[in-house]
Amino acid sequence: EDQVTQSPEALRLQEGESSSLNCSYTVSGLRGLFWYRQDPGKGPEFLFTLYSAGEEKEKERLKATLTKKESFLHITAPKPEDSATYLCAVPIYNQGGKLIFGQGTELSVKP
Amino acid sequence: EAGVAQSPRYKIIEKRQSVAFWCNPISGHATLYWYQQILGQGPKLLIQFQNNGVVDDSQLPKDRFSAERLKGVDSTLKIQPAKLEDSAVYLCASSPSGSSYNEQFFGPGTRLTVL
What we know:
The structure holds two protein chains of two kinds. Chain A is mostly beta strands. Chain A has no helices and eleven strands. In chain A, the strands form two sheets. In chain A, strands 2, 4, 5, 9, 10 and 11 form a six-stranded mixed β-sheet that branches. In chain A, a hairpin with a 3-residue loop joins strand 7 and strand 8. The N and C termini of chain A lie far apart (41 Å). By secondary structure, chain B is mainly beta. Helix content of chain B is 0%, strand content 48%. Chain B is built from no helices and eleven strands. Chain B has strands at residues 5-7, 10-13, 19-24, 31-37, 44-50, 53-56, 65-68, 75-79, 88-95, 105-106, 110-114. In chain B, strands 2, 4, 5, 6, 9, 10 and 11 form a seven-stranded mixed β-sheet that branches. Chain B has a four-stranded antiparallel β-sheet with strand order 1-3-8-7, with no helix packed on it. Chain B starts with a strand and ends with a strand. The model of chain B has no long low-confidence stretch (mean pLDDT 94). At the A-B interface, strand 5 and strand 9 of A face strand 5, strand 9 and strand 10 of B.
């Protein structure tokens, strides 16, 4: 069964305290992995797409990496404005872009 | 470029009542998705349209949910009758095509509360 699991469910950091979020997946025929950010009361906002194991992408304080079984979202020296829920999602093979989402990691960064 | 628009933003109804949500995707996007997001969970796909045809509705509770996309642009999602467990945020997303490689752009969502 295709499945995406994120950990931890919630993460509290002090400003400047670096950490990582994990996204584990079990799907047949990986066609990529997406990271989204979701602020309260808003829809998910696209961050990154990773297509193959070993790929890395960066945006400001965020860096996403991909292996054959999981992806990490590394947050370096976070700021309070990085507080949000981070979602990862994987497209299901041969189903026209259908995504399976993890349950998300709620990140809180305190000043 | 205008994003995905949804309305209403909030809706409160009694159980067994009906409700409808509207979505206007990004101009030119052929693929439109409706997701249900229950508090504390990730979005779950309800239905996917490619232009005005249904690609996937395997997780749509068809005894109470219906959706249409007239002329391949706007879409409406209806619930009739609503149950307590339908309380959730309903998200609409669009992408240029149904390719697995395309990112999806999400609207702000409609928060539904069923009392």
